[in-house]
Amino acid sequence: MGVDYLLVDSQFNQEELLVRQTARQFVEDRVIPVIRDCYRDGRFPMDLIPEMGRLGFFGANLEGYGCAGMSNVEYGLLMQEIERGDSGLRSFVSVQGALVMYPIHRYGSEEQKQRWLPRLQAGAAIGCFGLTEPGFGSNPAGMLTRARQEGSDWVIDGEKTWITNGSLADVAVVWARTPEGIRGFLVERGTPGFTTSDIHGKLSMRASVTSSLAFSECRVPGAAMLPGAKGLKGPLSCLSQARFGIGWGVIGAAMDCYETARVYSTVRKQFDDRPIASHQLVQEKLAWMITEITKAQLLALHAGRLKDQGRLEPAHVSMLKRNNVAMALECARLARDLMGANGIIDEYPIMRHLCNLETVKTYEGTDHVHALVIGERVTGVAAYR
Questions:
Q1: pLDDT tens profile 294-334
Q2: Would you say residue 384 lies in a domain?
Q3: Which of 45, 244, 354, 371 is 20 to 30 A from 380 via CA?
Q4: Is there a domain that residue 321 lies in?
Q5: 125: Cβ–Cβ under 8 A, 6 or more apart, which residues?
């Protein structure tokens, strides 16, 4: 289950290893037995939500309000193990914690925190994050969703799409343009003028619910606005939290692909009844995979330590997300290649991880956008426009 070529485990303390083992056991016992059928059927394993809440998976690196208060390295190891099970499950946990609980925790009023955070932490309520629009993904500054003030209320009009958990959510964190700039609002399920519809036909992230949100004269009280979030910095700070988790999570998917292919290569025999692991080209692929996984582990660990010290910057997170997702996707492709035709059947997890990782490469900032973030950091010149 674990992959530790360079003795990276020696850099973790006992609490960190305990968090990883707890999550690893949960994935083995509760996720692996059901995830193939969930992916095949295109459904999320809803019965796992209360258990993940009891284990402290939601908002795990937040303090108070029932949250586990984990370090960011512990949180990263949690994401790694959950994504070893499935990227869709890790996406659920990421959205719940980094994109819903985090903005409420950081930018919300005390009343909003008291009302939502304990329920979200326990899995008694589900949240979603409404930023991406049909015409604006990589450029959120161009959003068309508007909110106007009428008396003490706000009226929201617009549309969001590619929203994880959208139709499941009891509360949506919705970003809209107002006369004073971009602001965040908590929109509850059942609010008149707020509707959701699921996106079907996905060949990736099939064990995850993805939706569109529509707002038509959707009226919310003034108390629904997140008072501390003003401007695009608010939603972008949430995305940085989610990208950090992704940078760790995809290591788990890569580990699963590598280990599946490694074991397969030792038992699959070809040419003179020898295992294919005895062939030089097979060993070269496995050597590449374990080397890149190890480099990704070290990058994630250092980023986690920096985050715990308050020194991790958004441009650092861009490198973490971009490098580790590309690494995991290539590991999945190489694993599929090593396993031949068996690599495409769902008896093995390879094709499921490969398809999921194509989505992970795109969401929370595409590979190209993160390259430009890094480029701006090293040149001082922004190339976005």
A1: 999 999 999 999 999 999 999 999 999 999 999 999 999 99
A2: no
A3: 244
A4: yes
A5: 116, 119, 170, 171
